[in-house]
Structure of Helix-turn-helix protein:
Amino acid sequence: MEEIINFKTIKEYNNFNNNETLHPLISIVDLSKADPRKLSKLRYEFYTIFFKEVKCGDLRYGLKNYDYEEGTLIFLAPGQVIGENGNEYYQPQGTALVFHPELLYGTSLAKDISNYSYFAYSASEALHLSEQERKTIIDCLEKIKLELKHNIDKHTKKLIVSNIELFLDYCQRFYDRQFITRDNVNKGILEKFETLLDDYFNSEKPQENGFPTVSYCAEQLYLSPNYFGDLIKKETGKSPQEFIQFKLIELAKQKIFDTEKSIGEIAFELGFKYPQHFNRFFKKTIGKTPGEYRTANLN
């Protein structure tokens, strides 16, 4: 079994990077203070946001090389593992905002944090900031730094969590912008998604495996499920699941006109285990059963 360095507390991570611990549940870590170290697999039991704020050729946090422009953010949810084990040494660079889930207990962000789906994106789906966006992110980090330097009092938690939420909201806005500015890339992925579904339904896979899942489609397109879901929603107004169902209905309509096949045979070809499931699905969407739809359109 490969060795994984596990960080359970903020203090452990600060010590690992030669940073002082100003608060037990949150830190802004200057990674340049860390000693050069070997490539390793790392697991964080807290939220981790890496920020590359200088042009230095690559991004190394125990990760593979990523040739990003100035101003890049990577998000990790608690429990995620990144990096790889190796004998090569590297110098960590940039800044990391780390905060433990316990910091959020009793706040509105505790229940809302799951809405920031980018925490489940892969490192290759990083947020690339414009110069103005970069300044906004630095400003948010400076506000958190200022609060961490203040003696802990009854206002500390509320102010820190409010600034984290502001930071995350800005990141959500910037990701929305990134989906738009990378429109050509996104449309290419949408076309590949449609082709993937066409190829899937024209094969034996529906009879063998049922309907294609969102995770399956994301994997085939080399994307994380969350990033894939958000991208398709931005491009089509539908979730990937809704888009799959839309394609399924369109294909079902075509097949229903082949009167040489029974409704049961069509249901099986589409991946339904039982014809009655197909009947319910079709009627719920179209307002008619497959049989009624066939009769109405062939007369």
